[in-house]
Amino acid sequence: MRRLLTTVAAVALLALGALVALQLTRPSLPSSPDEQAAQLAAELRCPDCQALSVAESRTAAAEAIRQEIAEQLAAGRTPDEVRDHFVARYGKWILLQPADPLIWLLPVAALLLGAAVFGWWLRSSLRGRGTADLERAVSDEERRRVRDELEALDG
Amino acid sequence: MAKQLPIAWRWVIVPVVALPLGWLLFTGLGRDPRLIPSPLVGQPLPVLSGTTLDGAPFTTASLAGRPALINVWASWCAPCVTEHPLLLDVARSHGDELLLVGLVYHDTPDAARAFRTEYGDGGWPDLTDPSDRNALELGVTGPPETFFVDAAGVVRYRHVGPLSAEVLDAQLRALGVGS
Questions:
Q1: What are the structural domains of chain B?
Q2: A61 and B132: CB-CB below 8 Å?
Q3: How far is B171 from chain A (nearest CA, A)?
């Protein structure tokens, strides 16, 4: 009985995991043309605005681009083809998110490099201030004086 | 001292990190963030078509064989007023060597016609663009913009903002006009 319950629980967990995985991968493949159009509009920069997407802007240019996206999707073009259509006319500038994966890795690389340099600096500075320096700073003359005075206190 | 960075390394790290970073930031100072290079440069001009302000059908497919200057403008655009005399000059002195085409951007035909009446009609076709289709084909971000097209129909240069006599002269010469 117990083994059966464990099996059922494991299967249920697997199914749940598969569902979550499906749900996570779904937004990248919107099914209906309206969803595809909305996602494309959110990815494209409005040409006569400052840092607004075509989806957010109410300018005539943004309206025209939304119209063009809808028409091209209706004509059977894939979202990638529509995106490329605008990149070919406006350049990569039209994409609100950089298409080059290197751009996304740079901040992570910079953070790791910074952490490494900081850790290395921390280690070397702790060692530099370690007992070696202190021992060198106290001369034999001073040691003799400390010993003498301690003995004087005891006596 | 053995645990610290050797002196030689300090002299390497400063130039390796600071100099490229400094160079990047310094050259960035001189760049205009509004200036976006057009991917159309070096590519054939997309076919622009529609009705002119005079009501005649027009298409750039008929340009072939002559250099052309495509000027995107609007009556509400103040810099377009500034550059207009230069375009009139070009039409007057090089009208036989190249074709000027205006593209009216986000404007009503009446307002655009009033602009031509007030500031001078050079006689070139001014394409209306009610659905923005032509502007989208050119990747227009805002008027004035001017595209220099060679005799083979390839875009050679895109100028954003009002034209100056210097830019106009240099780009027309590059097209082999007025030489």
A1: 49-174 (3.40.30.10)
A2: yes
A3: 21
**Number of domains making up chain A:** 3
Mutation for testing the B interface, residue in A50, A63, A89 having most B CBs under 10 Å: A89
Choose the final residue of a domain: A74, A99, A124. A99
Instruction: Provide CB contacts within 8 A for A101, sequence distance 6+.
Output: none
B103 touches chain A (CB under 8 A): no
User: What is the signed CA dihedral for A99, B32, B131, B123, rounded to 10 degrees?
Assistant: -140
Give residue A94's domain range.
Answer: 32-99
Q: B70: Cβ–Cβ under 8 A, 6 or more apart, which residues?
A: B45, B48, B60, B101, B103, B138, B146, B147, B149
**8 A C-beta contact, residue B70 and residue B101:** yes
Per the CB < 8 Å rule, is A124 touching B3?
Answer: yes
HSE-CB at A60 with a 13 A cutoff on CA atoms is 14
CB pairs under 8 A between A and B: 48
Q: Where are the alpha helices (DSSP H) in chain B?
A: 7-13, 19-29, 78-94, 109-119, 133-138, 165-174
pLDDT tens string for chain B (179 positions)?
445 566 677 778 778 888 888 898 888 887 776 677 889 999 999 999 999 999 999 999 877 789 999 999 999 999 999 999 999 999 999 988 999 999 999 999 999 999 999 999 999 999 999 989 999 999 999 999 999 999 999 999 999 999 999 999 999 999 988 76
SS3 of residue B135 by DSSP: helix
Residue A91, helix vs strand vs coil = coil
